[in-house]
UniProtKB/TrEMBL annotation:
The chain crosses the membrane at residues 163-181, 193-214, 226-248. GO terms for biological process: intracellular manganese ion homeostasis. The keyword Ion transport does not apply. GO terms for molecular function: manganese ion transmembrane transporter activity. It comes from Vreelandella venusta. This is VIT1/CCC1 transporter family protein. It is found in: Endomembrane system. GO terms for cellular component: endomembrane system. Pfam families: VIT1. Coiled coil: none annotated.
Length: 250
């Protein structure tokens, strides 16, 4: 990630630019959802391919199992991500109701919580009391402050449906790639597996490096780490398939 120069930073921090940026709605990054879906999609399908190859299944069986798992697991992951987001929103709504009840019933107690929260941030004396008075003057601001400062909760940018769609799309698009060699009937099953292995390794490496590039982290370290986790999952699936085939054949 390139380092911005001082002039561009000064422009970005001009009062008008700051006001415009802070007034814009907060949008949560979809990159974590995309990375989650892409990695899990690739692991899922290549694990099926590895298990099928280890068990000695035909390419047709590997392809059918791979696509079946791709759709089913992708949908399951998207639903899980959606439900997790909805649960987070429900938690925020429940906590907000509780805080509003507390403000109605014991306003001085809630005011004292605000006082202690901001005292811990370094505010003291008259300035502290001004901060408390300003926050507690407006109920919505008061509740929002309690949610953020006391409970660490915020719904800013949270969109369960968007997260689910991004996860599902990344899962399908990336997860389908290790299956592509199995759509070519003119090559041997070993070649199909090795080609799928190469694609999966390239995907794991690329995802890790892309993630690190976005966040300005060492690219190769992240890429190798993601590659290691992906190949470990595939190796486990291959070993399981081989073991199952040996036990059943014996």
């Amino acid at each position: 990630m390139p380092t911005p120069n001082r002039e561009s930073l000064l422009n970005d921090h001009h009062p008008d630019a700051v006001h415009k940026r802070l007034a814009a709605p907060v949008k949560a990054s979809t990159l974590p959802d995309a990375v989650l879906g892409a990695i899990d999609g690739c692991v899922t399908t290549f694990a099926v391919v590895s298990g099928a190859f280890g068990a000695g299944f035909s390419p047709q069986v590997a392809l059918v199992l791979g696509f079946a798992n791709l759709i089913a697991d992708g949908f399951s992951m998207a639903v899980s991500n959606y439900e997790a987001g909805q649960a987070q929103l429900a938690q925020i709504a429940s906590t907000e109701r509780i805080e509003r009840q507390h403000i109605d019933l014991v306003p001085e107690g809630e005011r004292e919580e605000i006082r202690q929260l901001f005292h811990a941030k370094g505010f003291e004396g008259e300035l502290l009391e001004q901060v408390v008075e300003t926050i507690c003057r407006e109920p919505d601001r008061w509740v929002a402050t309690m949610l953020q400062e006391e409970h660490g909760l915020s719904s800013a940018g949270l969109n369960p449906l968007r997260a689910a769609l991004v996860t599902f799309s990344a899962f399908l698009l990336v997860g389908a790639l290790p299956l592509l060699p199995y759509t070519i009937p003119s090559i041997t099953i070993t070649t199909q597996f090795l080609a799928s292995l190469g694609l999966a390794c390239g995907i794991f490496l690329a995802i890790g490096m892309l993630k690190s590039a976005v966040y300005g982290l060492p690219a190769w370290r992240s890429g190798i780490r993601t590659l290691s986790m992906g190949t470990a999952a595939a190796g486990l699936a291959f070993a399981t398939g081989s073991l199952a085939q040996s036990l059943l054949a014996g």
